[in-house]
Amino acid sequence: MPAADLILLADIVHTLGRDGRAPTAVAIAGGLIAATGDRSDAREWRGPHTEVLDLGSAAIMPGLVDGHFHPVMGIGMTRGADLTGVRTLDDLRAALARTVPRDGWVEGWGLDTNAFGDVPVTNAPIVEVLGPDVLAVIQVFDAHSAIASPRVLALAGIVGPREFASGASIVCDADGRPTGHLLEMEATALLDEVMPADEPSDRRTRLRDLLRAMAATGLTGANAMDFEDDSAELFAALEDEGDLPIRWRCAPFVNPGVDADGLAAVVDLQRTGGRRWRVDGAKFMIDGVIDVGTAWLDEPDAHGESTACLWPDPDEYRAAVRHLVAAGVPIVTHAIGDAGIRYVLDTFEGITRVSAVPHRMEHLETMPSDLLARFAALDVTASMQPNHCSHFTRADGDDNWSRRLGATRAGRAFRVRDLHDRGARIALGSDWPIASYDPRGIIASARLRRPAGSYDVEPIVPSQTLTARMALEGYTTAAAASAGEGDRAGRIVPGMPADLSAFALDPLAADPDEFAESPVPLTVVGGTVTHRS
Fold this sequence. Notes:
The chain is 30% helix and 20% strand. It is α/β, with parallel strands linked by helices and 533 residues long.
């Protein structure tokens, strides 16, 4: 072999290959894995310009890939105060009092509406702390709702209920006055029309900072579940400055009401890409979320809600999927409720896949047992986010999600282990900015069914825990297979891309709570070091 560009040495190397080898040295040349072996082999791989990095007792593994991410949409959603730590209304009031306006606007993001307890979600805390004339918008953690101050409602022309084509709505009180709570994208988009836009340079800076921070957690790639209007421009602008520290597969949204021209545009986008990003798929949503009553359930929730498909005519979803599948586009569908999951599986069962990339479904929050085996039978990837379960639900059922569903359906929460044991391909991820993207904490949550480090928190449906190996595969081999690359990525095997993650602690041996705090000495993408501690 030619001289290596980079040689990595470590006490532990998890190749996840099929030969069971346990090397301690990896040679990289031309962006690919060139060889694996023992430390003594490294002498034969060296040349005059080879860089050798000895990571000592660290563990090297295939690069971790986040299965569900919103990079460009997320940098727009995470402006202002970080409210992810708010747990009570008093916490919210204190956070609002500390928030510094930007261009006259008070903004916040990541609010868990469990903070309202049994009180309706309204803009009352904003008015109490900042007054009725403030320009204020809070993005709720689920990314399917927002809270706006009275003045913002007036600017947006929101004075009462409205009819939307999808399941969106403007929540109003008994007198028909908007409470400030807006549900689903058609409603929250009304706020976008009046809120100040970011400067393009600011968006580039925020995206660049995000990608660097992701690499610092060991991530080498991610699946972007949207393709905003300026996504291509942003990725291209960053690549003008150098290679991206993260690889991206992007799936543009296909929304209810899409016409033939809209579908043709999605097909055309499949040709879009750069050195480390490409459009490869189409993102649908069959329902909303349980938390605000817009999921699609077999039976209504405790509020009599979550009874309908997000598409006013579900057959239009099916027709759009068939059109794109025939054009070779892999399909991604957000499906949270049992009725929505069943409808999507029924849709996939009736079509022949053209693309080498398997279709996939996202979230899968509650479902009966009869649906589990169909994922493997139809070769549909189950893409799930352990932090959604561990961070936003509670074992005692005293949270909004669980109360809406009731004990039986909440007992079917996030059945990742059941899916795995029935042969389903499991891809793990974060759904950032809905939850933290740090894979160390997510791998721990998958094993614990509670937040890492929260020793006093009772696990949520502990029968659904994954083993350490299963969780790691959800970020590596299964992630590669879900992208149609199972034979050429996701393992440390000669000829495969040199995308590698290194951790000070071995994820297959360390206590999961401790692994969540593991230092990340090195991240490598395409043979290039993208993070070094």
